[in-house]
Design goal:
11 helices, about 10% strand, about 45% helix
């Protein structure tokens, strides 16, 4: 589907079954995601903030996040599903978010019904905006799309604030407002995910994050419950940062990185991932 816009490519993938979108916190990581055969990746607001050295509390600007999206989309050629937090403001700001995410090369975004400043979806003490207010924001965002294929996903954090019944009610009102998919955040286990899917039929996104409120569920199990997209927002970042920590500890203790060589990506492996051969012109990926 060369030349097709990212949203159309994502929709075509979804028409063939559930997709897994690993989190990519940089363009290099996104290239690795593509190298391993995934067709989509996820740009987490939390991971992007953490890579800037700040917590996930809405501190980064739209421009900063769009730069990350653009680098990842250009470098990997993947369908990018991107976190838009609360839309970076009220209705007009949220409409601009749609325009800028599309321009940056994203295939989809999700926006959540928390009060700004938002909190990580797996923390307590979150606050929600009124459902009608959020539905109106969604309708405006849907109307701001340059392409009808750009996918807008509505996330609701109601499960951990007002309960499952309100989460389902909000989800269904968000679908009526024009959302292409629903992202129920903070569900506890497979039984809750299955129940939610039955009560809010349509395209659904599941967040399989570690160390949160959700028990571990496989991508295959999510698919059987009707979830078309499964994201792993922080998994790769957590693996990478654990390796960074262990490597620095070894250097501090031993004064040498030699014992860590077997755990490192080699120069040849890095060049292969980049598609780079010294002495030859590099085929810039954004030009394809």
């Amino acid at each position: 589907m060369a030349g097709t816009n990212p949203g159309a490519r994502l929709r075509e993938q979804l028409s063939r079954g559930s997709i897994v979108a690993p989190g990519a916190f940089s363009a290099l990581v996104a290239r690795a995601v593509a190298q391993h055969g995934f067709q989509a990746c996820y740009v987490s607001g939390g991971a992007t903030a953490n890579m800037a050295g700040v917590p996930d509390i809405g501190l980064l600007t739209l421009t900063e996040v769009c730069r990350t999206i653009r680098e990842i989309a250009d470098a990997s050629g993947l369908c990018v599903i991107a976190d838009a937090d609360t839309g970076y403001g009220e209705v007009e700001c949220a409409m601009r978010t749609v325009v800028e995410y599309e321009r940056a090369g994203a295939a989809a975004l999700h926006v959540e019904d928390q009060v700004f400043p938002k909190r990580c979806g797996h923390l307590d003490d979150k606050e929600l905006v009124p459902a009608r207010e959020f539905a109106d924001k969604l309708a405006a965002m849907c109307g701001a799309r340059r392409s009808k294929d750009f996918v807008i996903i509505a996330r609701t954090d109601a499960r951990g604030v007002t309960g499952m019944d309100d989460a389902v009610s909000r989800a269904n009102s968000y679908r009526e407002a024009g959302a292409d998919a629903i992202f129920p955040e903070g569900l506890a286990d497979a039984a809750e995910f299955a129940a939610f899917a039955k009560r809010s039929p349509g395209l659904l996104l599941a967040n399989m994050t570690e160390f949160g409120k959700t028990a571990h569920i496989s991508a295959a199990e999510f698919a059987t419950m009707g979830y078309g997209i499964v994201i792993y927002p922080l998994s790769v970042m957590r693996l990478a940062m654990k390796a960074v920590d262990e490597g620095l500890a070894a250097l501090k203790a031993r004064g040498s990185m030699e014992p860590m060589l077997a755990r490192m990506q080699t120069r040849a492996e890095l060049y292969a991932l980049l598609g780079y051969q010294p002495g030859q012109q590099w085929p810039f990926p954004g030009a394809r």
